[in-house]
Amino acid sequence: MLGRFALATATAAMAAAVALPMPAYAAEGRLVWVTNTGQTKSISNPPDGRCIQVGEPAFPVFPARVVHNRTDTAAVAYSDLSCQRDVQSLPPGSSSRENIVASVKFGPVP
């Protein structure tokens, strides 16, 4: 009886381990931007649904000089730091217009 219980427990544990969700990435590649001070920054494999700030917090916000989507997935560029005011779509391999982007988000747009 104890052997069957142990076997059932082990089987359930293995099934749960296999079913655990893996982190989902919206894109493979790099999001690259040039800050308003001229520094080049980047993030690899940007996650889906996360608001990525590329501008500098200030009043008013200092947007990035330019943003390059070097991933395999489309993104949306925003003029604010909280991904609320969209200004441009960024298809894979594209770049933003100059001095307008403060944040970027990959994945479905609500």
Automatic annotation (TrEMBL):
Residues 88-98 have a biased composition (Polar residues). Residues 1-26 form the signal peptide. Residues 88-110 are annotated as: Disordered. Keywords: Signal. It comes from the Bacteria. This is Secreted protein.
